[in-house]
Amino acid sequence: MNAQLLEMPSRHAAVDDSRLLLTIQIGGRLCGIPVPCVRDVLRAEAITRVPLAPAGVAGVLNLRGRIVTAVELRSRLGLPPAEKGAPRMSIIVEHDAELYSLVVDGVREVISISSERREEAPATLAETWRAHTTAVYQLDGDLLIELDPARLLAFGRGAEGSMS
C-alpha cells in the first residue's frame, strides 16, 4: 500500500481526528473494518456448513474451543463466490457477546485515516453495499469502503446499532 495512505496523527491532533481501519479486500474492492471491532485475524479455517442457515452464513468454525459463526462477506455484499481454492482470511469480531468470523479475500494493513476524508456512501454505491457501509474515503484515486460489522451481522434485523 502506498505510504501516502498511512496518515500518522500529530501529537496535537484531537483523539477523534482520525480513525484506525484494518484494510481488507473483498471481490477486488478495498474495504475497512474499524480496528476496535477486530479481535483476531486468521487464515481461513475449516468451516462446517450448517443446514438451513441464512444466506451469507458460511457455517461455523472452531476457534480455540469456541464455536464461531462464519459470515461470507462476498455473499453478504452480493458478490459472486470466490474461485475454488482461492486464499481466504477470517476477521474475528465480537458482537452481542458472541464471536463471528468475517470471511474475506485478503487482509492488507492497518491505516490511520483523517476524518476530513470521510464521506457518506454515494448514491452510486449498490444498495447492498450502502446497507452495510458506515462511510467511504477517497485515497489517491481509490475508494475505501468502511464496513459496519454490526450491520453485516444483522441478519433479518436491518441495520440496527453500529459497532463503530
Automatic annotation (TrEMBL):
Database matches in CDD domains: CheW
Domain (CheW-like) ranges: 18-158
PROSITE patterns membership: CHEW
Record InterPro entries: CheW, CheW-like_dom_sf, CheW-lke_dom
Top-level taxon in the UniProt lineage: Bacteria
Listed name of the protein: Chemotaxis protein CheW
Organism whose genome encodes this protein: Muricoccus vinaceus
